[in-house]
């Protein structure tokens, strides 16, 4: 028990230090710490991965971004779709469209291999079943809000890909996946709360208003600017954020 307590304490200290380094704009030091955390076999939550990547983008360091991408690619847990899309968007922002395309193509290949292993009995379990259910819910919600008048605003996708790919990228933004997971994991009518360390994009803001309307749920999203309370197709910010 004592050893576990020490490990938990060290993990919290690492996460706090990682956040501090990112906030101070020191991506190389943050990547070094990320490397150590992964070497120790610990899982690094997506929000901390995103913080490191954001620090690379704000420092406009393509070399740091590539290094962080390589580290996360070697993680046994792989790269979650929202993080992968963030990596591709940052590559585009830094003028490396080829890297962005390769990142997205590599992520798609990895997902296909993982799915194949699960179908062969090499993985899965309740967590994986719930994750797949959430992805199916995202696609279902997309159809429902399209019927309710949603039109994807692909200006918020920086990848050098066709319009269909841009729409798919928007559909799998992290807040929509989180909301979908909440919908399949809670009883009808339960309010949902989502926290993200980046600003919600304009397309997701429009989409979540309609998701709240078609599901009859109250959805609260806390981004790095303010709280957004979505209910009955409207947001508390009055579409100004």
In short:
Residues 105-136 are annotated as: Disordered. The chain has 241 residues and is of the alpha+beta class.
Write up this protein.
- InterPro entries: DYW_dom, PPR_rpt, TPR-like_helical_dom_sf.
- Residues 149-241 form the DYW domain.
- Residues 127-136 have a biased composition (Basic and acidic residues).
- Pfam families: DYW_deaminase (PF14432).
- It is globular, with a radius of gyration of 18 Å.
- It is an alpha+beta fold and 241 residues long.
- A hairpin with a 4-residue loop joins β2 (219-222) and β3.
- Strands 1-2-3-4 form a 4-stranded mixed sheet, covered by helices on one side.
- The protein is built from 10 helices and 4 strands.
- It folds into 2 domains: 2-119, Serine Threonine Protein Phosphatase 5, Tetratricopeptide repeat (Alpha Horseshoe), CATH 1.25.40; 126-235, no CATH class.
- 64% of the residues lie in helices and 6% in strands.
Number of strands: 4
CATH class of the largest domain: Mainly Alpha
* Helix percent band: 55-70%
| Mean pLDDT over all positions | 83
Q: What is the third-level CATH name, the topology of the largest domain?
A: Serine Threonine Protein Phosphatase 5, Tetratricopeptide repeat
**Structural class per helix/strand content?**
alpha+beta
Give me the number of helical elements: 10
Spatial order of the strands forming the largest sheet? 1-2-3-4
Major sheet characteristics: 4 strands, mixed
| Percent of sequence in beta strands | 5-15%
């Amino acid at each position: 028990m004592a050893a576990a307590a020490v490990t938990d304490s060290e993990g919290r200290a690492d996460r706090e230090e990682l956040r501090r380094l990112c906030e101070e704009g020191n991506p190389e030091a943050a990547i070094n710490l990320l490397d150590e955390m992964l070497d120790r076999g610990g899982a690094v939550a997506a929000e901390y991965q995103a913080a490191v990547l954001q620090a690379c983008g704000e420092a406009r360091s393509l070399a740091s971004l590539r290094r962080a991408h390589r580290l996360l690619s070697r993680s046994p847990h792989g790269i979650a779709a929202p993080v992968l899309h963030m990596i591709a968007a940052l590559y585009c922002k830094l003028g490396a469209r080829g890297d962005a395309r390769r990142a997205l193509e590599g992520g798609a290949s990895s997902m296909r291999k993982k799915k194949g292993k699960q179908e062969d009995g090499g993985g899965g379990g309740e967590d994986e079943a719930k994750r797949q259910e959430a992805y199916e819910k995202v696609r279902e919600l997309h159809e429902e809000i399209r019927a309710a008048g949603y039109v994807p605003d692909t200006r918020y996708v920086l990848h050098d890909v066709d319009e269909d790919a841009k729409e798919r990228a928007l559909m799998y933004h992290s807040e929509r996946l989180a909301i979908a997971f909440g919908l399949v994991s809670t009883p009808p009518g339960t309010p949902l709360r989502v926290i993200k360390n980046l600003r919600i994009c304009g397309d997701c803001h429009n989409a979540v208003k309609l998701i709240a309307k078609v599901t009859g749920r109250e959805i609260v999203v806390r981004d790095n600017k303010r709280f957004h309370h979505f209910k009955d197709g409207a947001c508390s910010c009055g579409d100004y954020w």
